[in-house]
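Page 37, continued from 36.
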């Protein structure tokens, strides 16, 4: 990232400091300040940890009057800590999910657990959902959002697409869900994209998948993953569905240049530190209150503050995507909630305008929030899902339906019946309960 500073003139002394000199000096000063701050707060934290107990004890010993009775509920709130904040290792996340399923049997779909080792030697969790009958219409590759996993809400969404006739494949990124890696840590976004492309390239090589059209599905940060995967490997995909994609930080939200420089300096010193402030995505992304509460039950979600290295990777990625929007050439379905405050819907409009794709569709749902497929009322989820399946069907070529020389496509009526049986009510996190598909 290049920060340009204009020249500065001191008229009374006649001195002029060049833009290059000033920029370098500013960077050095910021780096020194950042280092001092890190050392200071680290020392302060160590001192606090060593003295908090003794201070508490001495305070109680000096109190002559008995302390007033504490409110049990208030005490519970003080001592309750979300255990998901300590799921740094893949082993701890897998254990957390296993314990969760023991307590919540209704979330256990009998899902098979499968891991593959990628070319970087990391163990990745992968999952697939297949149509019950006939040859798939196409392949849908899932790219989940920041802090998410394919083992929770995506379990329900994938079943809908499989019921609609698509082979669906998903994976947890390194550092997320059940895959190996430090929780929530993305030191290099290009490596993450390569991991996704490597796994999905292997799927395309399956004999039973030969000749099928391949579509990317990217939600939020997954939209950035999908766009980068297309830009790096343009011949691998036949289209992309982007839901509330993270593809540019709005100018009004972009941090000042000096904060960017401080973040860069700190990210080189303590990249894994959770120092970047963040709002609860469920609170501002889920409009339906019941589904918002259900989202908080995800046992492997990353809920801590973003790590410095991750924040810097995401910032650099959105900067790159913004510069390269005009290179996006594959068929696009861009979906965004008009009331989204997590990713800016105006950026989706810019992507739609700048992409050189000849086949591109933008759908804005004015009252919807960020999580259109997980956090909206059922009527909105069904509307968005219907739009996605309609778009996919229109771009799945006739060769996808040929099986033993016969057309295996279901009639509209037959498909409607299948979807009516399979469409899950997402409050139940993907459990098929027979809601009618509008």
């Amino acid at each position: 990232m290049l920060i340009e500073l204009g020249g500065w003139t001191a008229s009374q002394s006649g001195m002029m400091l060049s833009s290059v000199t000033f920029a370098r000096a500013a960077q050095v000063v910021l780096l020194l300040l950042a280092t001092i701050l890190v050392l200071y707060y680290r020392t302060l934290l160590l001192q606090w940890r060593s003295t908090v107990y003794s201070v508490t004890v001495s305070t109680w010993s000096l109190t002559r009057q008995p302390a007033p009775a504490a409110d049990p509920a208030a005490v519970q709130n003080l001592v309750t800590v979300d255990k998901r904040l300590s799921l740094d290792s893949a082993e701890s996340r897998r254990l957390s999910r296993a314990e969760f399923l023991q307590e919540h049997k209704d979330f256990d779909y009998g899902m098979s657990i499968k891991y593959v080792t990628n070319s970087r030697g990391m163990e990745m969790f992968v999952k697939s959902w297949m149509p019950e009958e006939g040859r798939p219409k196409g392949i849908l590759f899932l790219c989940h959002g920041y802090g998410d996993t394919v083992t929770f809400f995506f379990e329900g969404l994938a079943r809908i697409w499989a019921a609609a006739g698509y082979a669906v494949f998903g994976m947890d990124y390194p550092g997320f869900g059940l895959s190996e890696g430090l929780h929530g840590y993305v030191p290099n976004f290009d490596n993450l994209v390569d991991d996704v492309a490597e796994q999905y390239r292997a799927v395309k090589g399956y004999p039973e998948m030969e000749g099928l059209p391949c579509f990317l599905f990217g939600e939020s940060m997954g939209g950035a993953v999908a766009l980068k995967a297309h830009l790096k490997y343009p011949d691998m995909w036949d289209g992309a569905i982007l839901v509330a994609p993270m593809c540019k930080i709005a100018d009004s939200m972009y941090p000042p240049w000096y904060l960017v420089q401080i973040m860069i300096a700190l990210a080189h010193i303590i990249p894994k530190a959770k120092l970047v402030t963040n709002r609860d995505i469920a609170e501002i992304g889920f409009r339906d209150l019941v589904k918002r509460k259900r989202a908080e039950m995800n046992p492997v979600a990353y809920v801590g503050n973003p790590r410095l290295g991750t924040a810097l990777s995401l910032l650099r990625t959105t900067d790159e995507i913004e510069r390269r929007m005009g290179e996006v050439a594959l068929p696009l379905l861009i979906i965004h909630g008009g009331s989204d405050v997590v990713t800016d819907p105006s950026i989706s409009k810019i992507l739609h305008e700048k992409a050189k794709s000849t086949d591109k569709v933008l759908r804005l749902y004015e009252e919807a929030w960020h999580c259109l497929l997980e956090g909206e009322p059922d009527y909105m989820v069904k509307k968005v899902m219907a739009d996605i399946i309609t778009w996919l069907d229109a771009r799945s070529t006739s060769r996808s339906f040929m099986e033993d020389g016969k057309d295996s496509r279901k009639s509209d009526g037959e498909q409607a019946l299948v979807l009516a049986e399979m469409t899950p009510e997402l409050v139940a996190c993907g459990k098929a309960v027979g809601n009618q598909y509008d």
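The first strand starts at residue 8 and ends at 10. Flag for discussion at group meeting. The chain has two domains: 16-56, 89-428.
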